[in-house]
Every structure is written in structure tokens, then in C-alpha cells.
Design a protein that fits this description.
This protein has two helices and seven strands; from the N terminus they run E-E-E-E-E-H-E-E-H. The protein is an alpha+beta fold and 174 residues long.
């Protein structure tokens, strides 16, 4: 899932307490249907793009640039001069719509904890007392994290490299 429940002991603590972040939604202009798990009733709802306001985390972590510097800059193509009988094919491996696409290691969820406290009972958690405080930590690469694009580009380029078929060679022909 996109979030995981965190015990207070799993939160990252800084000098003045637990590192907690905000979250909000921006209307997407689309509608969806919400089905209530308890009653099964269905209601039309406006869909939101989920954005994590990770100011607290961004303040204490250095930015990981990853492969951002490998992305093309549109103005760098401005100087290309072609003759009338020439053409050019341009391509790049930019990753669009990557937020919440990649799962993050479990330990990262504490860095992305949201500043809203639930009880285990409210979340239907049966592995702990119902009144135990629970925070939600984002378990995917979130929009709002200043290193998200660097990490996503690195992972995407790595997947592209791994996914390329390697030429098969017969050692006897060497």
C-alpha cells in the first residue's frame, strides 16, 4: 500500500521531538466512487492528487540528486543546425507520473510520517492494543519529497539498463 502504520518508536526523532509532516490533496477534475467497507453503500466523490508536505523531512535530509543531471534541457537542442535533407530523432528517458510508483524500503516510512495520530482500533489493526497510538508513514516515493525526482530517475535509468537484452555470445567463437 501507499502507507504503513507506525508505532511511536518507529518515528524518526530530531532534537525537538518526532519528525512529522503534512499532507493535502489537489482536485484532479475527475470523479470516482467510494464504497463504504462497513455498509457497502456507494458515493460519488471528487478525486484528489495526493501530495505530501514534507517540509520537516526535507529540512533535515540532504537532497539526493541521483540522475537528474542526466535529463535533457530543451534549450540545449536549440543550437542544432540541419541541412534541408537532414533530420534528427531526439529521445530521452524522463519519467512522468512517477510519484507513488516505487515502493520504498520499510525504514523510510518513519522519515515520511504524517502528523495525524490514529488509534490501532480506528485503523482496524489487530496486532496491537486498540487504543495504541498509530501514525501513518508513506511507503512509496512521495510527491513533496525533495529527493523524489533524483531517486525516481536513478531507479528508472537502472531498470532500463537491467531490462535491455544482452547480446548472446558463444565463447567457442571467441
Amino acid at each position: 500500500g501507499a502507507v504503513r502504520p507506525l508505532r511511536r518508536s518507529e518515528l524518526v526523532h530530531v532534537s525537538d521531538g518526532p519528525l512529522l509532516n503534512g499532507t493535502f490533496g489537489v482536485r484532479k477534475g475527475k470523479e470516482g466512487v467510494y464504497t463504504c467497507p462497513a455498509t457497502g453503500s456507494r458515493t460519488k466523490v471528487g478525486l484528489l492528487r495526493w501530495i505530501a508536505n514534507l517540509l520537516a523531512t526535507n529540512e533535515v535530509l540532504a537532497e539526493l540528486r541521483g540522475d537528474i543531471d542526466k535529463l535533457p534541457v530543451a534549450t540545449q537542442w536549440k543550437g542544432i543546425v540541419l541541412q534541408d535533407d537532414e533530420g534528427v530523432l531526439l529521445g530521452f528517458d524522463d519519467l512522468v507520473g512517477c510519484f507513488h510508483l516505487f515502493s520504498m524500503p520499510e525504514a523510510w516510512a518513519g522519515w515520511f510520517a504524517i502528523n495525524y495520530k490514529f488509534t490501532a482500533g480506528e485503523l482496524g489493526l489487530t496486532d496491537r492494543p486498540k487504543d495504541e497510538p498509530v501514525f501513518l508513514g508513506i511507503a512509496t516515493l512521495p510527491m513533496g519529497f525533495h529527493s523524489a525526482m533524483g531517486i525516481a530517475q536513478y531507479l528508472h535509468r537502472r531498470l532500463l539498463r537491467i531490462g535491455r537484452p544482452q547480446p548472446q555470445t558463444d565463447e567457442r567463437l571467441q
